[in-house]
Amino acid sequence: MHEVDYRVDWRDDLVIFTLSAEKRLNALSRTMVDGLEKCLDAMSAKGVRAIVITGLGKAFCAGTDLHEASELSHEEQCDKADRIRELFFRLQTMPLTSIAAINGHALGGGLELAMACTLRMAHPNAGLGLPEVKLAVIPCYGGTQLLPSLIGKSRAADLMLTGRTIGAEEAHHIGLVNRLAEAKQPFLEQALSFSREVTGHSQRAIEDIRQCLVVASETVTQSGLTLEGQVCRAQGDSRDAKEGLRAFLEKRPPQFSHH
């Protein structure tokens, strides 16, 4: 077991989860998975509304820990993949906001972790890719579904079938990354600021928007518009919606209760 694979830093309204196996380029281990799972469990109890996930050193996460994988049986490897896939889906769908602060290379399982987050910010020097095809395997932590959902099937096919690594600027251009950080500014502070751009708003509104995004597709559908209408009606009884309107009319900052 790696006892220093991760760090958890609780900061008022958010938590910073740092992959800290710097010598192994933060390769994703079972210990890291345990830590992230425990962290997500604790977030609701602590009233924390956002998690920022980042890496220590030059890499965000270089992918699954292949040294650990070599010591596992095929069945154990499959069990690990199933568990991580479920954890990443939980991260993707939970009502709390998650920000991947991609400080360096995010490859394989590392990119899958970043894609499972609500939003992504990358350092200009970061590289992103799913190189599994070079090992004659597939991205198995949800990557085959996450990548096309973010950038479309054609671009996803390019990245997965070639296994190439792209720079942060290209990742931003194709929509894989939401924000490019300023190279001369403290990276983590920019990620925390990005997180608070979201959490400064009503949690009720955030959850409603994300609910609508789940059913959104490349073409507008009647089912998506129907859900949007249902959510809009439900918001009529929202205390935060009423407070937002009052605050606007009274020219003051809103005091949201997140209901």
Description:
This protein is an alpha/beta fold and 259 residues long. The chain folds into two domains: 6-199, 2-enoyl-CoA Hydratase, Chain A, domain 1, CATH 3.90.226.10; 203-249. The protein has eleven helices and ten strands. The chain has helices at 30-46, 66-70, 74-93, 109-116, 143-151, 153-162, 168-173, 187-199, 203-215, 222-235, 239-249, and strands at 6-11, 14-19, 50-55, 59-61, 97-102, 105-107, 119-122, 127-129, 165-167, 179-180. The strands form two sheets. A six-stranded mixed sheet has the order 1-2-3-5-7-10, sandwiched between helices. A four-stranded mixed sheet has the order 4-6-8-9. The mean pLDDT is 90.
List the helices and strands and how they pair.
Layout: E1 6-11, E2 14-19, H1 30-46, E3 50-55, E4 59-61, H2 66-70, H3 74-93, E5 97-102, E6 105-107, H4 109-116, E7 119-122, E8 127-129, H5 143-151, H6 153-162, E9 165-167, H7 168-173, E10 179-180, H8 187-199, H9 203-215, H10 222-235, H11 239-249
Provide key terms for this protein.
alpha/beta; single chain; six-stranded mixed β-sheet; 2-enoyl-CoA Hydratase, Chain A, domain 1
How many helix segments? Answer: 11
What is the strand arrangement across the widest sheet? 1-2-3-5-7-10
CATH architecture classification name of the largest domain: Alpha-Beta Complex
CATH superfamily of the largest domain: 2-enoyl-CoA Hydratase, Chain A, domain 1
Largest β-sheet summary: 6 strands, mixed
Radius of gyration: 19 Å
Q: Low-confidence parts lasting 5 or more residues at pLDDT below 50?
A: none
Number of strands: 10
The number of distinct structural domains comes to 2
Percent of residues in β-strands: 15-25%
Spatial gap, N to C terminus: 42 Å
Order of helices and strands: EEHEEHHEEHEEHHEHEHHHH
Helicity, as a percent range = 40-55%
Broad structural category: alpha/beta
Under CATH, the topology of the largest domain is which? Answer: 2-enoyl-CoA Hydratase, Chain A, domain 1
pLDDT averaged over residues: 90
